[in-house]
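Figure caption, in words: inputs first, then the predicted bound structure.
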Amino acid sequence: MFKFEESAGGIVFKKENSQTYILVTQHSQHHGWVFPKGLIDKGEDKQTTAVREVKEEGGVEAKITKELSSVEYFYKFEGNTIKKKVTYFLMEYVSGNIQDHDWEMEAAEWLFIEQVEERLTYKTDKQVWSKALEILTK
Ligand code: ATP
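Bound structure (adenosine-5'-triphosphate present):
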């Protein structure tokens, strides 16, 4: 049997001078490049989690524009297998500075749309990114 965890996070876009930028962060522990996300607290809805985690791990305020799909993966921690489900939201940047991200991420960058797929570490994130890209470019 495995333990189950559920997280939520955001793919944050910012439009500036007719360019679109996407917020991508580097995890301090596993060093993968990911979108900001985190565990849904008890009693919290996933939208609230996504907004909170984007603020904590990405340093910025952003508002949800659309729910994207969920991804699932398994990982091992202290001998246990954990199944994790992560729901991502497409979110529009409102204010703040990515340099204000907390210790959970070692880096945060605004990337051009064309740079995102290559930078992402995990296949599941690339899959949800392709859906976000469809929405952003249609
Ligand atoms: P959360 O941000 O949800 O609180 P966390 O930061 O504690 O979680 P994860 O980012 O889920 O932890 O990382 C836990 C393990 O899962 C790490 O070993 C990491 O390499 C791996 N992992 C993270 N994201 C993915 C993914 N999309 N696909 C597969 N493995 C992943």
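Residues 7, 27, 30, 32, 37-39, 73, 75, 84, 122, 124-125 surround adenosine-5'-triphosphate (CB under 6 Å).
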